[in-house]
Specification:
Strand 23 and strand 24 form a beta hairpin. It is globular, with a radius of gyration of 26 Å. The protein contains 14 helices and 44 strands. The chain is of the alpha+beta class. The chain has a six-stranded antiparallel beta sheet with strand order 1-2-3-4-5-6, covered by helices on one side. It has a six-stranded mixed beta sheet with strand order 7-21-22-26-23-24. The two termini are 19 Å apart.
Length: 725
């Protein structure tokens, strides 16, 4: 895969954390044992069931949170500071409040119902333990009548433009690891298999070994993509977090198949997972930055966007996609800011905070787990402090905060009692400080306690399968000096089959294998050049653009081709061209919209033909191809079922040329009732012979969208394009 990186890393040098006051301080706020202080703002915990805050926009008008729910059936946490205990109890109370009357998990105060990615990421972060039965019911709520995992509404009408539904598989597997419930395993196995097999036929890119579709969780088109990218472009992109979710899902299906199916299929599924992992490392690793690219994007010639994308980077570490040395270096060099680690870095100009310019506590929670895995106390302390600051000031677990000022007001949308934010807060205890790591047949312990948080912690009444555990962690460090089970020395894990009440004591060794944190200023890349074609000028074809940058990189077919200092360029060879504005701080803009200058273009008008689940389910179009070669095929269409951001009526069809399957064509939504809004589908490449060739669109079982009942659009023409040399 082509690597288009032409910049220097404009980030601060890696620094080692040193606390200035109390447990943690970074110049913007200070954690002083049982209180958080930020200028004149203070939150403190007089006891483990109360937090008092004078933050001007906290959840309660009184500025006080008092425990009001029965959490007696939940784990009990004691810590060296009362504030830690109170924040954990706040999370437990909100986990109780999150359960709806129908026993499913509500996404947030402002977000009703169950959302696939939200509940799944929450389950992996701790709800598998805190709310096991509600987690099961919530996952089963996100299965459609065809027995497939539901992709929530997303860009262009959901799946297959948005494809991160497979995070459901990680959540379902986490519940199995926590419970050992064989009936649950048998329930989820066919759902996982059907869903992944559909994806196998619909979203795989054989050139990279990876899958296509929108960024996992980052599902608001304008917040994380260049504005020129439409839903069909997003379908063709290949995104780090989404790749990780699919890698994990295929690995898990392999494990399920080995237990419930055939060894041959298990090996086949393992090979698919390995291919995705290799594709991530081959196509998304950016050596110049020291982390993975956020995604591959473009049209006919995808290129990497080198931004740091926190959730995806964390998953590469947690899933073992990045090796140990690479993982440790990534954590130390990750761009952190005073109020947390941003969703991605650098930010995008003129886009209001939500995913852009924001920290999300659940993303910080995954990053904390990744930092703990590599043994980095500086990153862990910073991450826990930022989550605790939010919970104590706001008296609830908010959805997100503005990254440059730490305020929840100012983001486009925000909600109190956000499910995965609750999970992010509880995970700081469960997954990091106590170090619970659930495996298929064991419970392994990997605690990390920063030196500044040294002391004795205890988590009691933890239910694991048929056992009830009382766990004590003493001291600080990332390694275990001693581990005892019921007073007897043992290896640091528990085996399935343990019954009744048991006590575990862990003494840490005071050592850390890695360290360092990279604190950076907020940074924005230059605006994306909006180049326009110029045809028929005296100088010949070319393009022009306006920008305040002084230097521009010209890409041809995804590769750096020229560098200019002016806003126009003359085309001398056919190809696909893009413009990148060079930033003064070392970070460049997104590449602009591709401008195509083809050697040959054929447009075959079909008339306005309606294709649906019952009409024109096999549509043939005969095209006279002038010469043999590689041709790109796309379609002009209209899908007026809803707008870009909502609903689930993306139309999908299998493309054939001369009877041979080429791939999937997506016809995303363009706007409700906009019957005159015509757009181009994604483009697929095929080797075509000279002469008459039949181009076909066929509706197959794997083309069923998330709506099922409505899968239709109007096709106006087919276009064949050939690039010269």
């Amino acid at each position: 895969m082509k690597k288009v990186i032409n910049f220097t890393i404009g980030i601060a040098a890696i620094i080692l954390f040193a606390s200035c006051s109390g447990i943690y301080s970074n110049g913007s706020f200070t954690w002083e044992k049982d209180s958080m202080v930020e200028g004149g703002i203070r939150a403190y915990a007089p006891d483990k069931y109360t937090i008092i805050s004078n933050y001007p926009e906290s959840e309660f008008e009184s500025g006080e949170w008092h425990l009001s729910e029965d959490i007696s059936g939940m784990p009990v946490y004691s810590a060296p500071t009362v504030l830690e205990e109170a924040i954990f109890n706040l999370a437990l109370e909100e986990a109780v409040k999150a359960v709806e009357p129908d026993s499913t998990l509500r996404t947030g105060v402002n977000w009703g119902g169950v959302w696939t990615r939200d509940v799944s990421y929450s389950i992996v972060l701790g709800f598998s333990t805190l709310q096991t039965e509600a987690s099961k019911k919530s996952l089963l709520r996100k299965v459609d009548r065809l027995g497939r995992i539901i992709q929530d509404t997303g860009t262009g009408g959901s799946w297959p433009c948005s494809t991160d539904r497979q995070i459901w598989v990680m959540a379902a597997w986490e519940i199995y690891k926590v419970t050992g419930d064989k009936e649950w395993l048998e329930t989820i196995y066919p759902i996982v298999k059907r869903s992944l097999e559909d994806d196998r036929l619909t979203i795989f890119d054989t050139a990279t070994g990876m899958v296509r579709g929108e960024s996992s969780f980052l599902d608001w088109r304008k917040q994380e993509y260049p504005l020129w990218m439409g839903p069909a472009d997003i379908y063709m992109s290949e995104n780090l977090g989404t790749e990780c979710a699919h890698y994990a899902a295929w690995e898990i299906l392999s494990e399920m198949e080995a237990r419930l199916g055939s060894a041959r299929k298990a090996a086949e599924y393992r090979a698919i997972a390995d291919g995705i992992r290799d594709g991530i490392n081959d196509n998304l690793w950016v050596g110049e930055t020291g982390w993975y690219a956020q995604y591959l994007y473009g049209r006919r010639n995808p290129i990497p966007s080198p931004r740091f994308e926190t959730l995806g980077e964390a998953l590469t570490i947690l899933l073992g996609i990045a090796g140990p040395e690479r993982s440790a270096a990534m954590v130390a060099s990750a761009p952190c800011q005073d109020f947390g680690i941003p969703c991605f870095y650098p930010q995008i100009k003129s886009i209001p905070p939500y995913h852009n310019d924001a920290m999300w506590p659940f993303v910080q929670g995954y990053w904390n787990k990744a930092a703990a895995k590599v043994g980095n106390p500086d990153a862990v302390l910073h991450g826990i402090a930022c989550i605790y600051r939010m919970a104590s000031f706001f008296l609830t677990n908010k959805e997100n905060v503005v990254i440059y000022n730490g305020k929840w007001k100012g983001t486009r949308i925000n909600s109190s009692r956000q499910l995965w934010s609750i999970a992010g807060a509880s995970s700081s205890v469960l997954n990091v400080l106590i170090g619970l790591d659930f495996a298929e047949d064991t419970l392994v312990f990997h605690p990390l306690v920063p030196k500044q948080m040294a002391g004795t912690r205890r988590l009691s009444n933890l239910k694991w399968r048929d056992a009830v555990l009382d766990i004590t962690v003493k001291g600080y460090g990332a390694g275990i000096k001693s581990f005892t089970l019921d007073g007897n020395s043992a290896s640091p894990f528990l085996s399935a089959g343990l019954e009744g009440s048991h006590s575990v004591e862990i003494v840490l060794d005071g050592k850390f294998p890695s360290g360092g944190i990279n604190m950076v200023d907020n940074l924005y890349t230059p605006s994306t050049p909006a180049a326009q074609k110029v045809i028929g000028s005296a100088e010949g074809p070319g393009f022009v653009w306006a920008s305040d940058a002084d230097e521009f990189i010209i890409l041809k077919d995804g590769e750096p081709f020229d560098t200019v200092g002016i806003g126009h360029y003359k085309v001398r060879k056919s190809g696909e061209y893009q413009v990148i504005a060079v930033g003064k701080d070392g970070w460049n803009s997104f590449a602009g919209e591709p401008l195509e200058y083809f050697e040959d273009t054929i447009v075959k008008e079909t008339g306005d033909i309606r294709i649906s689940r019952s009409e024109n389910t096999h549509l043939d179009m005969n095209v006279n191809v002038p010469c043999e070669g590689e041709w790109f095929i796309d379609f002009c269409f209209c899908n007026d079922k809803n707008n870009f951001e909502n609903d689930n009526k993306c139309a999908n069809r299998t493309l054939l040329a001369g009877g041979k399957v080429i791939g999937t064509v997506v016809f995303p939504q363009g706007g409700r009732g906009l019957s005159d809004y015509w757009q181009w589908s994604n483009s697929l490449k095929a080797h075509l012979p000279a002469g008459n060739v039949t181009i076909s669109l066929e509706f197959r079982p794997e083309n069923e969208n998330m709506n099922i009942d409505v899968n239709e659009c109007t096709v106006r023409s087919v276009r064949l394009s050939r690039l010269g040399n």
